[in-house]
Amino acid sequence: MSDALISHHAELNPQSGASREPRVLDVVTPDADGNINCDVVIIGSGMGGSTFAHALRDSGLDIVIVERGDFLPREIHNWSSESVFGQGRYRNAEQWLDEANQPFSPGVFYYVGGNTKFYGAMLPRFREEDFAEIRHAEGLSPAWPISYADLEPWYAEAEKLYRVHGQAGLDPSEPWRSGPYPQPALEHDPALAALEQSMRRSGLKPFVMPAAVDYGNGGDCVLCSTCDGYPCLLDAKADAEVSALRPALRSASVRLLTRTTIKQLITAADGRTVTQAHGLIDGRAVTLHAKRFVLACGAVNSAALLLKSANEQHPEGLGNSS
Ligand SMILES: Cc1cc2nc3c(=O)[nH]c(=O)nc-3n(C[C@H](O)[C@H](O)[C@H](O)COP(=O)(O)OP(=O)(O)OC[C@H]3O[C@@H](n4cnc5c(N)ncnc54)[C@H](O)[C@@H]3O)c2cc1C
After folding, report:
1. From the Swiss-Prot or TrEMBL record, what is one GO molecular function term (predicted)?
2. pLDDT per position in the chain (322 positions), as tens?
3. Within a 10 A sphere around the Cβ of 318, how many other Cβ atoms?
4. Which CATH number goes with the domain that contains 17?
5. Which of the listed residues 96, 297, 300, 306 should we mutate to test ligand 1's pocket, taking the one with most ligand atoms within 8 A of CB?
6. Nearest residue (CA) to ligand 1, atom 8
């Protein structure tokens, strides 16, 4: 049986070194016709998909997370600038076309955990006004259907899950918050501390960025200089795989399907409900059937999948009113 059909519970990276959690394997097996049935399919295991799975982990719903990428290997190259940037060792996205139809390599990565395997782990909240209508040079960004106040309790939950270190009251544009940051702010290194003092003397208001790392209290973060752009060799960066997916996979009702790319969403005859997702596991056809589908493929790939899912009722693509 292909590794791609294996769903992993708990600590799973087959190439990682010493595991801090028990390793349990489970299996998502399509039937003879390549079908998988469950309650909820989450497409994409990045920040959105993994956090969503974590929120549903105790719901009793049968959840399958579908991820086109594989586990990112933990290896010494994780921290090598030459490997990461010079050789592009982890770049695995296909080329995209720009407005002049010229190919380029997008800055996205297809791995379990999505782009957060490479993110800088800075997790500021949106400002209150970001939820309102905003006029940009390129056009009007409509108001969100929810406000910052609606989301605030969930920001607080997410900051706990992602162990965000910060200090309220320093950033002049920060929105109100119902409580302090779950972790104290990281201290500046000596060079940065001197720069901060100098900026303050000039009347500026520097502040510490909220950082999602496992630092202090026995945590593994060593405050190295390789966070933004690099995978974390120590699993000490609070990325989506480490902080949300692994805990979610401890629930018996959450399973993960890797190396599986969803190619098209299929709607019911009335065109109002998505009922199936067609994809490929290592090149073999698979169809997922569920009551709910959560699209968390990242900003561009979610939109691309909706466009590729055009059908008779939605000739311009699903959810594309404009
Ligand atoms: C170098 C770098 C630094 C960054 N630093 C920060 C930072 O400091 N702070 C911050 O807030 N943000 C940062 N970001 C951005 C942040 O990583 C993204 O905003 C975030 O990961 C988006 O989450 P997502 O779930 O929407 O998508 P992603 O994380 O992109 O996850 C989408 C997942 O879906 C999978 N997928 C895509 N298409 C399909 C398909 N058809 N079928 C199955 N699976 C599919 C992908 O493989 C991927 O795993 C950074 C990004 C990069 C690249």
Report:
1. flavin adenine dinucleotide binding
2. 333 333 333 334 433 433 344 333 455 778 888 999 999 999 999 999 999 999 999 999 999 999 999 999 999 999 999 999 999 999 999 999 999 999 999 999 999 999 999 999 999 999 999 999 999 999 999 999 999 999 999 999 999 999 999 999 999 999 999 999 999 999 988 999 999 999 999 999 999 999 999 999 999 999 998 999 999 999 999 999 999 999 999 999 999 999 999 999 999 998 999 999 999 998 899 999 999 999 999 999 999 999 999 999 999 999 998 7
3. 20
4. 3.50.50.60
5. 297
6. 120
Residues 142 and 72 in one domain: no
Residue nearest to atom 30 of ligand 1 (CA): 298
Tokens of 129: 């006004």
Nearest CA to ligand 1 atom 39: 297
- Quick one: 17 and 91 in the same domain? yes
Ligand 1: atom nearest CA of 107 is 53
Residues 68 and 142 in one domain: no
Are 85 and 185 in a shared domain?
no
Question: Could you give the number of structural domains in the chain?
Answer: 2
**CA 140 to ligand 1 center in whole angstroms:** 25
Token pair 């960066």 is found at 237
Instruction: Assign 3-class secondary structure to 134-158.
Output: EEECCEEECCCCCCHHHHHHHHHHH
Q: Strand, coil or helix: what is 164?
A: strand
**Tokens encoding 130:** 């970001």
Structural domain harbouring 4: 1-117+233-322
Tell me the CA–centroid distance for residue 34 and ligand 1, in Å: 28
